[in-house]
Design goal:
CATH architecture of the largest domain: 3-Layer(aba) Sandwich
Distance between the termini: 51 Å
Radius of gyration: 21 Å
Strand content: 5-15%
Largest sheet: 5 strands, parallel
CATH class of the largest domain: Alpha Beta
Helix content: 40-55%
Number of strands: 12
């Protein structure tokens, strides 16, 4: 076993930058042992739940892993709700649903507002379960309301490393996965090979090949959502970072580092999750940063709070969609990457991917990433603000709210909330000297 591998597994804090938070963030290294021990009990619990419709309320690490697990088996029984877009939220039929409320901190604004929406319509505690850290407000609320179950996760696991803890394993059980198989897969990973991948990724970044092109089989395209968060939020610090570009087709370039995800069946996800967690921790060692903190994520949250505290919303100039490609062509330089940030309704991921490829091809193969807001604020948002100043951000906002939907107990509605989140992040990007174009558009195919 290599020295770096041994030090990671021994939880040696000196592997990473001084002052790092690894002391309370490395529980993911052994959590599968506990989950495997609980596999039978989790299956029994899951079988006691009406799983014909499960709505998961979460953001970031609480939602992206479950979405990968859902998509890998093609299930339409689990609905991952991780947006504040009013049209998307209003489109979810809550009749007969079981709700899984998922938040490490227990105070995530998006989860709180989504829970308020669902609870007003379905105030039946027997149809709710929560996953959170011990002692959080969500844990207390679940106990007070009498939720059917409150899963208290080991607190020494960060959100983006939590997919093999309760945050991913409970949804997996509800989806009918063999939990023991997922855990055994993680245990079987070649630790040295995973660490070598991360070391090579980190060295490539320092050498100018910082765009990590991760080719994923089309049937597992959603894996890109999870691995993108893991790498971006972990490594985008102190002007450094690895820029993940998940894709289902090979992309090449002088600034690219190529990696491949080999998946043929859903049961292999446990191994692939753990492989990339180890690799990302190793990349953080090479970069000399703390791969377990997320200093710039809180920044956009705070900006959103200030915008909401000072309603009405400020007017932010936005251009028409027709000139986007021309602006990008005149703005980007070699070594840049484009981030398409769609504050739009869910339901048409193929349109966003088509736009990503359109921009990529127009710019001669430049690295282009795309994500939905506010989802990406809890993932790649850290990289855009804390990583190298090579991002060219395009905010794709609605010309008007997609729907009108009140939030019970809050002084604003969902349309106002998602608009405030886009404005707050716009302020944050500008404060870091990032190049940003704000575009008012309701149909992504109109971007040209």
């Amino acid at each position: 076993m290599s020295t770096v591998t041994e030090r990671i597994l021994a939880r040696d804090p000196t592997l990473w930058a001084p002052g790092n938070v690894s002391a309370n963030r490395l529980g993911w290294l052994a959590v599968t042992d506990r989950m495997r021990d609980e596999a039978s009990g989790l299956r029994t619990w899951a079988e006691s739940i009406d799983r014909s419709k499960v709505v998961l309320l979460g953001m970031g690490g609480s939602s992206l892993g479950p979405e990968v697990l859902r998509a890998a088996v093609g299930s339409d029984h689990l609905i991952v709700l991780d947006t504040t877009d009013p049209a998307t939220i209003a489109s979810i039929d809550l009749d007969g649903a079981f709700f899984l409320v998922s938040s490490k901190s227990g105070g995530t604004l998006e989860v709180r507002t989504l829970l308020a929406h669902c609870w007003e319509r379905v105030p039946d505690p027997s149809r709710y379960a929560a996953i959170t850290d011990p002692g959080t407000e969500l844990a207390k609320l679940g106990a007070e309301r009498g939720f059917s179950r409150v899963f208290e996760n080991p607190p020494d696991i960060g959100g983006r490393y939590s997919v093999l803890s309760y945050f991913g394993i409970v949804p997996a059980a509800l989806l009918g996965y063999d939990v023991a198989e997922l855990c055994d897969g993680a245990a079987s990973v070649d630790r040295d090979a995973a660490v070598e991948l991360g070391l090579a990724m980190g060295e490539a970044s320092l050498g100018g090949r910082d765009k990590v092109t991760i080719t994923v089989p089309p049937a597992f395209a959603s894996f890109g959502l999870w691995v993108e968060q893991l790498i971006a939020e972990s490594t985008g610090k102190e002007g450094k970072g690895c820029v993940p570009v998940p894709t289902t087709e090979v992309e090449e370039g002088e600034d690219r580092f190529a990696a491949t995800v080999s998946l043929t069946r859903a049961g292999q996800l446990g191994a692939e999750f753990f492989r990339w967690e180890l690799a990302t921790a190793a990349a953080g060692h090479v970069l000399g940063i703390d791969p377990f903190n997320e200093p710039n994520v809180a920044e956009s949250k705070a900006n959103t709070g200030r915008v909401l505290d000072a309603l009405p919303l400020p007017e932010i100039a936005a251009v028409a969609p027709a000139g986007v490609l021309g602006w990008l062509k005149s703005t980007v330089v070699p070594g840049d990457y484009v981030s398409l940030q769609a504050y739009q309704p869910y339901g048409h991921p193929e349109q966003l991917e088509a736009l990503r490829r359109k921009v990529r091809d127009h710019l001669g193969g430049l690295a282009v990433t795309a994500g939905y807001g506010p989802r990406f604020l809890h993932s790649t948002g850290q990289l855009h603000k804390g990583g190298p100043n090579t991002v060219v951000a395009v905010q794709l906002v609605r010309t008007a709210p997609s729907a009108v939907l009140a939030i019970p107990g809050f002084p604003y509605d969902f349309g106002t909330l998602i608009a405030a989140q886009s404005i707050g992040d716009h302020e944050s990007l500008l404060a870091h000297g990032r190049r940003v174009l704000r575009v008012a558009v309701d149909d992504l195919s109109a971007v040209g």
